[in-house]
Automatic annotation (TrEMBL):
It comes from Ceratosolen solmsi marchali. Pfam families: Prefoldin. GO terms for cellular component: mediator complex. Belongs to the UXT family. It comes from the Eukaryota. Keywords: Coiled coil. The keyword Coiled coil applies. InterPro entries: Prefoldin, Prefoldin_subunit_alpha, UXT. The lineage of its organism: Eukaryota, Metazoa, Ecdysozoa, Arthropoda, Hexapoda. Transmembrane segments: none annotated. The gene is LOC105361307. The keyword Amino-acid biosynthesis does not apply. Gene3D superfamilies: 1.10.287.370. Residues 17-44 form a coiled coil. One of its GO terms (biological process) is negative regulation of transcription by RNA polymerase II. This is Protein UXT homolog.
Amino acid sequence: MESNIQKKVLQFESFINDVLKQDLAVLEKKLDEINSEIAEFLQLKSVINTIKNIGNKANGFKTKVDMGNNFFIQAEVENASHILLDIGLGYFVEFTLDEALVVIDIRIKLFERQVINLRKEIARTNAHIKVILIGIRDLQGLD
């Protein structure tokens, strides 16, 4: 009888470690990715608002552009009335600054919904882990 209990305890523990904790790690990674996407869109929104504010005062401006791996070059922007947004799969669409702000707000709302769903899924996985741990404790006769 005691060996059966130990086998069940080991099965439950391996299920927690091999399945549930890995699922939890995947969900947390997705959550981090989506949060970084939201941060990038918020930063882009801030940049667009800044461009809109200085666009009326000057005919162009100078800036530094990240070419990748934190390698920056100086650039001069003559007309900042339109912007290209990545819509996915390597495609870019040209928008006016106001249109881009609307698209960015919609994307942020979609990402926020995904964050809510992921947090619910993380909470559900954590609850499953706790329930199994309570079951293990009951099998072992601990309080």
